[in-house]
């Protein structure tokens, strides 16, 4: 199963630093600036945006929808087709079996239901066939209508179209008189039996059979004279957040209250057009507007705004009109724009973390680093010329140590030049002046091999600079 990762280009090396010969004795202190790639938060005020455009293979720079399939691929629905991104390249998909005489291009929405990946288009519902690696017309919903939105209650898939609301497997409209044949632009499940549906200029609570229970209205003080168009709905915490041409709305299901929530001190016509709302990786709301991106903190009511730049500035968007927003499984933020293709922020940026020498479980023993090795438990063995061996656990950010004072594993001297894992349960360490050491992890014992004068079955000397095992498995 594929999982999208942006660390594919970073490969850990079992031996990141070569052994140092005596001729390279240092007159300086070597502070370990390990190339441990550490996770730093990318979601700060200095976010860096990466771009995917038609120059990188997109069918079109106008992106209306973004989603991730069960295998981890990220899909983009554009004005002119459907694209899949694997973290490196973009693959374009032709839509098979379009209605003769009617061009099929615009992809409005993408959704996964019961492991099937669906694409709502301007000419009906389509689905991805993983066996043939192609996109085909859905056999469960073959109406040639403009599919605008999809949502699931868990047992059923509901399809919002330009001509009403449908349930997959049925061709009858669910909404009755007064709402029948009106465009359904956004849907969210309130429960297994109820839906929140944006139909025309109305926001409805309805049963899964189509019966409308309530038509929601804004509080009087929040109402505007213009008709409201609803673009997207997402649930976060106890609230449902709704993007509209009248700003950001919040529906409190428990108290049945719909209200408008300001998210910026500098409201204008463009910022009030909130086309995309998604949950962010750290509890924020990702708001895509005609005025760029806002990362909104519901608890504080504050937001951080990111706009566009005409220059190729990585800390700015290349287009401020955002029509789609999505947070992938790894926490990356994806934005679909009208003119600029995809702008995205990976959840992880890669940098360096200093592990400084000192005493204790949280610090490195020794300053002069001679050797690095990763064992089968993903722990890093660090050999030093003045502090023995430190064993670092990146997951726990914790050190263990082997030196002349430790047990059951110990050293004859703390000057280590070589470390080797033989794959059979033992780790070998070569020292300067102290010979060869074997740490048997199965028996928790230490064996030291030293030079003995006038003996043939011994080391030639006690200076071990490197350890290698040949094809015959001889060290």
- From the N-terminal CA to the C-terminal CA, the straight-line distance is 38 Å
Shape: elongated
Bin the helical content. Answer: under 10%
Identify the strand order in the major beta sheet.
2-28-27-26
Structural class: mainly beta
DSSP summary: helix tally:
0
- DSSP, total strands: 37
Characterize the main sheet. Answer: 4 strands, antiparallel
Radius of gyration: 30 Å
The low-confidence parts are 1-45
What share of the residues does DSSP label as strand, in percent? 35-45%
Estimate the mean pLDDT confidence: 84
Explain what this protein looks like in three dimensions:
- With 475 residues, the chain is mostly beta strands.
- The chain contains no helices and 37 strands.
- The protein has strands at 38-41, 50-52, 63-68, 74-78, 81-85, 90-93, 107-113, 116-121, 124-129, 134-137, 147-152, 157-161, 164-167, 184-189, 194-199, 202-207, 212-216, 230-236, 239-244, 247-252, 257-261, 274-279, 285-289, 292-297, 302-306, 322-327, 333-337, 342-345, 348-351, 369-374, 380-384, 389-393, 398-402, 416-421, 426-431, 436-440, 445-449.
- The strands form ten sheets. A four-stranded antiparallel sheet has the order 2-28-27-26, with no helix packed on it. Strands 3-4-5-6 form a four-stranded antiparallel sheet, with no helix packed on it. The chain has a four-stranded antiparallel sheet with strand order 7-8-9-10, with no helix packed on it.
- The protein is elongated and about 105 Å long.
- It starts with 37 loop residues before the first strand and ends in a 26-residue tail after the last strand.
């Amino acid at each position: 199963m594929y999982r999208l990762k942006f660390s594919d280009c970073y490969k850990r090396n079992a031996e990141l630093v070569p052994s140092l010969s005596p001729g390279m004795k240092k007159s300086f202190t070597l502070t370990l600036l390990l190339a441990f790639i550490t996770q730093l938060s990318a979601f700060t005020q200095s976010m860096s945006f990466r771009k995917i455009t038609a120059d990188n293979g997109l069918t079109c720079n106008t992106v209306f929808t973004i989603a991730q399939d069960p295998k981890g691929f990220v899909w983009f629905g554009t004005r002119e087709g459907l694209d899949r991104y694997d973290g490196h390249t973009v693959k374009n998909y032709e839509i098979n079996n379009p209605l003769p005489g009617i061009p099929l291009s615009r992809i409005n929405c993408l959704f996964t239901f019961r492991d099937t990946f669906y694409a709502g288009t301007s000419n009906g519902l389509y689905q991805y066939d993983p066996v043939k690696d192609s996109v085909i017309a859905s056999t469960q919903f073959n109406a040639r209508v403009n599919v605008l939105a999809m949502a699931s209650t868990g047992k059923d898939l509901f399809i919002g179209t330009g001509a009403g609301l449908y349930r997959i497997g049925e061709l009858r409209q669910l909404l009755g008189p007064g709402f029948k044949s009106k465009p359904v632009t956004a849907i969210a499940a309130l429960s297994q039996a109820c839906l929140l549906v944006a139909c025309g200029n109305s926001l409805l609570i309805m049963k899964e059979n189509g019966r409308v229970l309530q038509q929601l209205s804004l509080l009087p003080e929040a109402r505007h004279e213009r008709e409201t168009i609803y673009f997207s709905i997402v649930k976060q915490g106890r609230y449902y957040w709704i993007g509209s041409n009248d700003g950001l709305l919040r529906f409190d299901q428990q108290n049945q209250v719909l209200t408008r929530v300001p998210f910026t001190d500098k409201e204008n016509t463009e910022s009030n057009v909130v086309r995309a709302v998604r949950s962010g990786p750290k509890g924020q709301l990702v708001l895509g507007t005609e005025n760029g991106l806002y990362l909104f903190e519901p608890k504080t009511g504050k937001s951080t705004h990111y706009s566009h730049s005409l220059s190729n500035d990585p800390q700015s968007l290349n287009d401020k009109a955002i029509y789609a927003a999505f947070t992938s499984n790894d926490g990356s933020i994806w934005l679909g724009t009208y003119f600029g293709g995809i702008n995205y922020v990976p959840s992880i940026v890669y940098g360096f973390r200093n592990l400084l020498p000192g005493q204790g479980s949280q610090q490195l023993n020794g300053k002069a680093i001679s050797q690095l090795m990763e064992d089968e438990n993903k722990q890093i063995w660090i050999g030093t010329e003045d502090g023995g061996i430190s064993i670092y656990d990146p997951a726990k950010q914790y050190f263990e140590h082997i030196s002349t004072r430790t047990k059951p594993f110990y050293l004859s001297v703390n000057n280590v030049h070589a470390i080797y894992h033989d794959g059979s349960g033992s780790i070998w360490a070569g020292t300067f002046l102290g010979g060869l050491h074997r740490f048997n992890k199965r028996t928790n014992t230490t064996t030291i091999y030293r030079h003995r004068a006038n003996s043939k079955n011994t080391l030639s000397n006690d200076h071990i600079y490197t350890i290698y095992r040949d094809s015959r498995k001889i060290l």
